[in-house]
Amino acid sequence: MTTDSADTKVSGRARRVGRVEHFTTAERVARGKAERAEVPRRVHGEWASAPGRPDPVTLLEEQATTRVPELVPIRYGRMLVSPFTFFRGAAYLMASDLSDGPRTGLHAQLCGDAHLSNFGTFAAPDRRLVFSINDFDETLPGPFEWDLKRLVASFEVAGRHRGFDRKTRAGITATVSGSYRVAMREFASMRNIDIWYARIEVEETANELRGEVSVKERRRFEKDMAKTRTKDSLKAFAKLTELVEGEPRIVSDPPLIVPLAELVPTAEQPQAREAVQTLIRSYRRTLPADRRKLIERYRYVDAARKVVGVGSVGTRAWIVLLLGRDNDDPLFLQAKEAEASVLEPFLRKSEFGNHGQRVVEGQRLTQAASDIMLGWLRSTGPDGVERDFYIRQLWDAKGFAPIELMGPRTLALYARVCGSTLAKAHARSGDAVAIASYLGTNDIFDQALSVFAETYADQNERDYDALKQAAESGRIEAETGL
Known about the structure:
By secondary structure, this protein is of the alpha+beta class. The protein has helices spanning about 25-40, 55-65, 70-80, 85-90, 90-100, 145-160, 165-190, 190-195, 200-210, 215-230, 235-240, 260-265, 270-285, 290-295, 355-365, 410-430, 430-440, 445-475, and strands at about 5, 105-110, 120-125, 130-135, 140-145, 200, 240-245, 245-250, 255-260, 300-305, 315-325, 330-335, 375-380, 385-395, 400. It has two domains: about 5-10 and about 230-395, no CATH class; about 30-230 and about 405-475, no CATH class. It has 18 helices and 15 strands. The strands form four sheets. A seven-stranded antiparallel sheet has the order 1-13-14-12-11-10-9, with helices on both faces. The protein has a four-stranded antiparallel sheet with strand order 6-4-3-15. α6 packs across α18 (about 445-475) and α7 (about 165-190) packs across α18.
């Protein structure tokens, strides 16, 4: 993130606007049943490693070629903590595997990496806490079941990680797809505008589930939510900055947080600061006019490279500190590199010329309430390579479910919420009537995906072992403990 590209078009590649066909409800129901005849629901449970399946380590090494070299070992180290953390970083591997399996023609805007840890809370523009998918790095239109298969498999992997028995895990995974199916049927009966406004509010959901959890679990949830509500730019400011000669500066914590001043020679720092300010101006142009007016009230103060997540480690991610009225009015933004979706090699290229815009538009399409600061930009790095970024607030009451603390009953409740949440996202962008028709009213599809999840979790463990062996043999370098 050093110099501004000449390409500052907001719209990216020109979009073709053509005639939109409108089908009757009966025609949409028939389409779903026709898909069921073409791709029976039971076949989704049939999965086996395809002949000539790519080496999983080779696919991960392929991803590493575009990432910051010194950070790649951290990514491998985080993936090697357990098969569960490995799964979180293996979206590319699973996309490759799904491309060899059965697929319906019923498309929606996919998350692309819909594992259970990519769901969570955040503050809507009206400041109420909502629950939704919260990671869209891989978003792209595609078969609805790809997202659902990844979500169901993630619960199987998590159940193994928590030590649950096979019967318990099977019940949880069937709950995911069953919840999705029931919710999709409900969305299919709703008016289009009501689907668009639908959102899952944390307080309402907590009230609905209150009688299904123990007093201890309820108290822990309430404590976590109270903590989440305070997770904002003020909290980030207190945790991540210090005063240097009266001016706030981001605290260095290499290699996880490295301020811009440590990445650029002293003589080039004024130029680097000007470059960041130029990029902020480019980003502002992608915001709606009212948000643009808001962010223009903030001045740039500091920036740092930050390591985030598991699968994202190695991509270029920055945190940017802005100040408004005074030091009590901070705004922390996160600029995260957006590469081509891992789904692209197996589906189609994005309609957007800027992958930052791809992420933002995908998020806006699937979430009922998105971050008001969502925008994108393109920059040219010191190596002369153009890269795309999307920008959002660093902390805006973002919360994550404590999977490590969940017992079987709590994980099953979480499975129910995630399944219905994914259905809501797909209903906004896909044909809820056709998808609901395909899924039907019985549990055939649910049981098929439960079988798939168990089989795929076995493959995930084999892939984890392959990465572990690659680290032990010296083929790859893995940095643990970071």
